[in-house]
Structure formats: C-alpha cells, structure tokens
Write a structure and sequence with these properties.
CATH topology: Metallo-beta-lactamase, Chain A
Helix content: 25-40%
Distance between the termini: 30 Å
Number of helices: 12
Largest sheet: 7 strands, mixed
Strand order of the largest sheet: 1-2-3-4-5-6-7
CATH class: Alpha Beta
Number of domains: 1
Radius of gyration: 21 Å
CATH superfamily: Ribonuclease Z/Hydroxyacylglutathione hydrolase-like
Order of helices and strands: HEEEEHEHHEHHHHEEEEEHEHHHEE
C-alpha cells in the first residue's frame, strides 16, 4: 500500500486560522490573552513562531513572552515593532524559553535586560545554553568534525567547513541571562490567571518544555509537535552514544492524554488542531524510516553517511547535511539499542551497523 503524501497527511489536520499570518512587527490573537508573533529566520526553515501571554506578576499587568528568535539586528528591530504595536502599553514581565536552540533562546538576554524580567526554562537546557555561549566547539569545531568522520563523513572540504564553524552557537546566542527560574515536567505555572502545565520532551533538545492550558484548550508545543515537518531528532558529539529517537518517541506519548481538539501552537508552521492525528503521523514517519534503515543495513553494513541517501532523497547543503547526519545516527542507534542492528568499528575508524547475528 502506498504511504500517504505530505499533502494528504496535512489534510487530516485543521488550521482554524486558514492562511492568515501575523504581519511583521505585529501580533495576532489566537485565543483569549494569547498572541502569535512570527519572525523571519535566515535559514531554510525561514521563520519561528513566538507567543505573548497576557499576565500579571506581583500586581503588575503585562505579558509573558514564550521564545525569542536568534540574536541579530533584524530580529531586534522586529521586536521593537512588537513592543510598539502589540503590548498595549504594558511591559514584558517574564520570558519563557521552551529549549536551548538558538532560534528559541537567542534574544532572551536582550529581552530580559530590556524589560528587567526573569528567564524561565528547564535547568538542563539553561545550562546547555550557557555552555554553548562560552564554547568554541558548539555545533561545530574539531570535536563535531571528528564525530561525523567516525560515522562516515570523509569529504575533506565538508569536514574543514565544520571545523571552522566553531562559533556557530555563540554567533546566534551571544549571551544567556546570568539568573533564571527553573521549570520542570509536571509543574504548573500560573499565567494570567490560568494554570499552564509543563510537559518535558527529549530527543530534540536536552529538556524541552511545552506548555498546556486546559481552560484555554491550548498547547504551546515548541518544536516537539510540528504540523508540516518532522522534528529534527539527532545525536551530537557531546553525547555520542545517545538514543535520541527512543527518547523522542516516548515523549510524544505525553501528549495523548490531551484532547484531540487542543489548539496546537507550534514553533514552525501554523496553529492547528488534530493533535493525536499528528502524533501518530510522526510515529508512522519514524517507523517507516527505521524500516528503510533496517533494509539497507541488512543488505550490507552501513555508516550514517551511507544511510543519508536512504532517508533523504533531496539534495542537501552542508547546513542541512549536519542535521541529516545527526538524524541518521539517531535512527541507527535506536535499532542498535533494540538489538535489531549490530555496531562495529572498522579499521578505518568508521562505525557501521549491520544485521544482528
């Protein structure tokens, strides 16, 4: 039976706002006291969604901002427009960051300083971000290149470019606030008189936190549940034997107790309903990719680099290739940990995965 196309899968979701998007520098209300901001990114994934939640803290009325965008002049300028057009002459009282990736935390330091407010996020991702801003080997550099080489990337030019990307993270996240308020899985955060439940997620980031408000029927899903694309699930050199895909798939189960009619506010794409349907689509997607990996490795032992054309049929630039390598390793590790594949280290220093004996 032919697998459904992306368009067919998307037709099973519902977009309550249709094609409507917030204007640059403005916000669009999507639920009572919940505003949607959309900011441009200079990547293939060309935007991020940010959220303003009506709030009162210590008797002061204002807003909680959820996620921040990367730090660059264009993003700061767009925030300045948001301050003027969307805050209704009230301050930002708190900044919540779902996870440590640059498009989510990049401007947290600037927003917190600009509004004299506190950053709220998980401890794991806060400390990962702090390390990233001080490191000369974050998402690039010698260690990252060695890791990819051990999984079959042998192109000298690509490895050299990865080595030179040693300042990738601090270029996008030059600083992280020196203080923060920790949020945890299962914790309830009161925002604007409503309780928001914190839901941890793993595999995409060290300790991603999504936010669910039952009275409003709203889930701020961050990057854990996206409507059109599958969340990147990768293994990185900092944790070279991670089982990221298993952690991600297990995390998806946490959303199943929420109502199917929940309005999902994703970090990329448009607000949608059909949460259970989308969770199942993501699980089916990875099930199919895992079967493709098993079939390839059963024919002959494969490195992650060998698996990339199996999992990704389109041409990839180097930036996309780094994500693809991480994803390939994640799928191989899932099958290695379940015992369906066996890992060996060749004399050439490359890990290959073949059918288990």
């Amino acid at each position: 039976m032919t697998a459904p196309s992306k368009n067919q899968l998307e037709e099973r979701l519902h977009y309550p706002l249709g094609a409507t998007l917030p204007e640059p520098g403005h916000a669009l209300e999507v639920a009572p006291g919940v505003k949607w901001i959309r900011m441009a990114l200079p990547f293939a994934l060309d935007h991020i969604n940010l959220w303003l939640l009506r709030d009162t803290i210590d008797g002061v009325e204002g807003w909680t901002a959820v996620d921040c965008c990367i730090d660059r002049p264009e993003s700061r300028a767009q925030w300045e427009q948001v301050f003027e057009n969307a805050l209704e002459d009230m301050p930002i009282l708190r900044v919540i960051v779902t996870h440590m990736h640059p498009d989510h935390i990049g401007l947290a330091h600037w927003l917190c300083e600009r509004w004299t407010c506190r950053l709220w996020m998980s401890a794991t991702d806060y400390n990962a971000a702090r390390i990233g801003t001080y490191s000369t080997n974050s998402f690039g550099g010698e260690a990252h290149a060695r890791f990819f080489a051990s999984h079959g990337m042998c192109d000298a030019d690509s490895l050299d470019q990865i080595k030179k990307r040693s300042s990738y993270y601090p270029n996008l996240v030059p600083a992280v606030p020196s203080q923060y308020h920790r949020i945890r899985d299962g914790q309830t955060v009161e925002i604007g008189g409503h309780d928001w439940q914190c839901i941890s997620g793993y595999g995409h980031a060290p300790e991603h936190i999504a936010l669910y408000c039952s009275p409003l029927g709203v889930l701020i899903s961050g990057d854990m549940v996206l409507p059109r694309i599958s969340t990147n699930v990768s293994v990185y050199d900092q944790e070279p034997e991670a089982d990221s895909l298993t952690h991600f798939l297990d995390s998806l189960d946490k959303y199943l107790p929420l109502p199917e009619a929940t309005l999902v506010l994703p970090s990329h794409g448009k607000p949608f309903t059909g949460l259970h349907e989308r969770v199942q689509q993501l699980k089916d997607h990875h099930r199919d990719r895992l079967q493709e990996v098993i079939d390839a490795c059963s024919a002959r032992p494969c490195s992650a680099m060998d698996i990339i054309p199996v999992m990704f049929t389109r041409a990839l630039d180097l930036h996309q290739m780094t994500f693809a390598m991480g994803e390939a390793v994640a799928h191989l590790h899932r099958l290695w940990y379940t015992g369906e594949l066996r890992r060996t280290l060749g004399e050439d220093g490359i890990y290959r995965f073949g059918a288990a004996a």
